[in-house]
TrEMBL record:
PROSITE patterns found in the cross-reference section: RHODANESE_3
InterPro entries xref list: GlpE_sulfurtransferase, Rhodanese-like_dom, Rhodanese-like_dom_sf
Protein name, entry field: Rhodanese-like domain-containing protein
Domain (Rhodanese): residue spans on this chain: 11-98
Xref: SUPFAM superfamilies: Rhodanese/Cell cycle control phosphatase
SMART domains: RHOD (SM00450)
Pfam families reported in the protein's UniProt record: Rhodanese (PF00581)
Organism: Phytoactinopolyspora halophila
CDD domains documented for this protein: RHOD
C-alpha cells in the first residue's frame, strides 16, 4: 500500500477532512470541520467524498485511514493519510469538539 502521508500541522485550513473512525470514537472527540464516514460505511458512501479536491483522511492512529486513503485513490480520488491520526491531532493541541458534552478524549 503506497499512500502519501501528511503531518497534522500541514493539513490546510478549509481542507476536506474525512474521519473514518467508528461512531463512539467520533462522539468522544473529533476535529470540528471533519466529515464523519466510518470505514465500515465508506464503500457505500464513496459518492459523499469529493473527487475534485484533496481529501485528508484520519482515524485514531493512522492505520484505518491509510487503508481508506488507498481505497479512495483506487477510485480516482486524491486522498492522503494524516500521520498519527487523532492521537497526533490531540497531542498537537489542534481544535477538537465532543458530541458527548465532556472534554474531547480520543479513546
Amino acid at each position: 500500500m503506497n499512500v502519501s502521508e501528511i503531518d497534522v500541522h500541514a493539513v490546510p485550513d478549509g481542507a476536506f477532512l474525512l474521519d473514518v473512525r467508528e461512531e463512539d470514537e467520533w462522539l468522544a472527540g473529533h476535529a470540528p470541520e471533519a466529515v464523519h464516514i466510518p470505514l465500515s460505511e465508506l464503500h457505500d458512501r464513496a459518492d459523499d467524498v469529493p473527487g475534485d479536491q484533496q481529501v485528508y483522511v484520519v482515524c485514531k492512529v493512522g492505520g484505518r485511514s491509510a487503508h481508506a486513503a488507498a481505497w479512495l485513490n483506487g477510485l480516482g480520488r486524491r486522498a492522503v493519510n494524516i500521520s498519527g491520526g487523532m492521537d497526533a491531532w490531540q497531542a498537537a493541541g489542534l481544535p477538537m469538539t465532543s458530541e458527548t458534552g465532556g472534554e474531547p478524549f480520543v479513546a
